[in-house]
Design goal:
homodimer, 335 residues, alpha/beta, twelve-stranded mixed beta sheet, two-stranded parallel ribbon, 35% helix
């Protein structure tokens, strides 16, 4: 069963931290965030440094909720969108814990949960902190145009969230069960437009979600919600069509996208939110809340990453994409 | 025991692939490489694309030696030095296997072995392919200066290898035992010169190696060789001093550096080789050969990564470093 790992002794998500910026504070999920920075720079010297502040704060909040210090952590797994994942490294230095850096663009948080889940389920670690972050301003200037250009955007584009999410995985306690993960493969349908990522990523999401259903012998009806993150409006439609064509068409109301949830009808979000911090903060805040309060009891979260390299695209190549999925369930493996 | 995982049922390295360029072919380890490309571009359209060719070939060689196809692989874990780890992604697309992308600069191959070892030891995977690559020309222009400048280099600098290494981890068969891994933390001594990486990385190597000895209750005398990768001449001296000051001073003859091994006395290598493909190719070729032929029976390999971000350094910050170590031993866990 290549790609899917079912954890019979499921690792537990025992705490989460969700941090946003001012646009996230004005969005429909504001009540589920733990903390906001008042502005994009947060007293840092640069947007890139500010991004590190976001992830560090999310990590610290998750630790605080679990009444732990960073010295209690066996492992920190994180990544972000910056070249050389500087924000993750910054936070790893802050935590001073054993650290594995990863890169999977906006699919990072699910890759981190897959690896962290494995570390806990194997018994090698008791407490693993995972996290991911993105910053609108640092992402825009790295992947698209200098912020000062004020360039026009097409309606297909998405808005990179200025947000971070961190989740604490533990081998015991009260929490949400990480019952299985499905690791995706690279899928490339030939899209080369960094302003149309939803179309690029939808096939990767469909590939991983169908594999998950097949390998875990589940179907869409087994999940209260199936979440992508982040495909936006157009990508969600594509995903629905692709799943339906594979015989896994879900009840459309249950197919949600974290990028659409984060900003709702905010006009400047275009097709919806995106960025490694979008799904991470929505998961650590809103989705964990829904599960903790048993509004839903089982969800499938498929994070989608456009492994976009500006240099690679300039050299005439396309945008390879990937999606990793995690299945979360209410309960407690020691119950 | 935070950071060290001892595998009682040790995953086995059953095959490796080492690929180099023309300078590696002229180096003292040439006999241990499986394949060379005749030039830096390898019929690719760019140095960056060529880098993908190197890793793909190393991966294919490891698979061929094990008489496997990429469809037999449960998981591919890889990374490289390029922004958005494009060469690893390229190879993941070529293999079409479940893929976890990682970033740990030149420490990548040991991070991959740590994660891959966990995946195999946990029973979730039977066969995991890991790999790492670097390319001198693509690294120079991303991290330092355009190649066309022909800029002068100081004697402290190292030469990024144009090389790739891939290793196949399996749960059974004949191979080298991955008996334990030690995951490092970020160490930053305030170096900000990308032409003096050995000095930046030596403290991280010392931190991880001392932790490994302490947590596994071993000492330098328990290992036939202790290898860093890649600190170069000056970094190796610093590492020796740092280990000695912690009471773990090894027999100096047994403290080797993969960057020094790769190029020997080649003058244009300055302090020695470096790059994510240097230690990966030396490990997959030369070191695996020493173990297979029982020239040595137990070695500690501490890969060192300078998590150098050009933007981060331009913004006035320093170079955070990390080292991950793996302990390898001859034998077979099913013997």
């Amino acid at each position: 069963m290549k790609g899917t790992w079912i954890f019979n002794n499921a690792p537990l998500i025992t705490a989460g931290g969700a941090v946003g910026g001012k646009d996230e504070k004005n969005g429909p999920l504001a009540a589920y965030f733990d903390s906001f920075f008042a502005d994009d720079v947060t007293q840092a010297n640069s947007y890139e440094e500010a991004e590190g502040f976001f992830l560090s704060r999310a990590a610290q909040i998750a630790l605080n909720k679990a009444s732990l210090s960073s010295g209690d952590i066996d492992l920190f797994i994180a990544g972000d969108l910056m070249n050389q994942i500087t924000s993750a490294t910054y936070t790893a230095a802050y935590l001073n814990a054993p650290y594995l850096g990863i890169f999977s663009a906006c699919a990072t948080v699910c890759e981190a949960l897959a690896m962290g889940g494995l570390a806990v389920a194997s018994g090698k670690c008791q407490k693993v902190l995972v996290g991911s972050v993105s910053h609108n301003k640092s992402a825009e200037r790295q992947f698209r145009y200098p912020n000062e250009y004020g360039s026009q955007k097409p309606p297909t584009c998405q808005k990179t969230a200025t947000a971070a999410g961190a989740l604490l995985l533990a081998d015991k306690g009260q929490g949400i069960m990480l019952e299985s993960v499905t690791v995706g493969r690279v899928v490339d349908y030939g899209i080369n437009d960094p302003l149309n990522m939803g179309a690029a990523m939808a096939p990767a999401a469909a590939d991983t979600i169908c594999k998950h259903f097949s390998q875990t012998k589940t179907s869409p009806a087994d999940y209260d919600l199936i979440l992508s993150g982040d495909l936006g409006k157009m990508g969600r439609e594509l995903l629905f069509d692709l799943l339906s064509s594979q015989g896994y068409g879900p009840d459309k109301q249950r197919l949600k996208d974290c990028g659409l949830l984060l900003y709702g009808e905010q006009k400047d979000a275009f097709c919806g939110g995106s960025g490694a911090g979008c799904i991470a903060s929505v998961l650590a805040g809103y989705l964990c809340n829904l599960l903790q309060n048993r509004v839903v009891t089982r969800i499938l979260v498929a994070a989608t990453g456009a492994l976009l390299s500006p240099n690679w695209v300039k050299q005439g190549n396309t945008i390879p994409c990937i999606s990793h999925a995690v299945s979360l369930r209410v309960g407690d493996n020691n119950a």
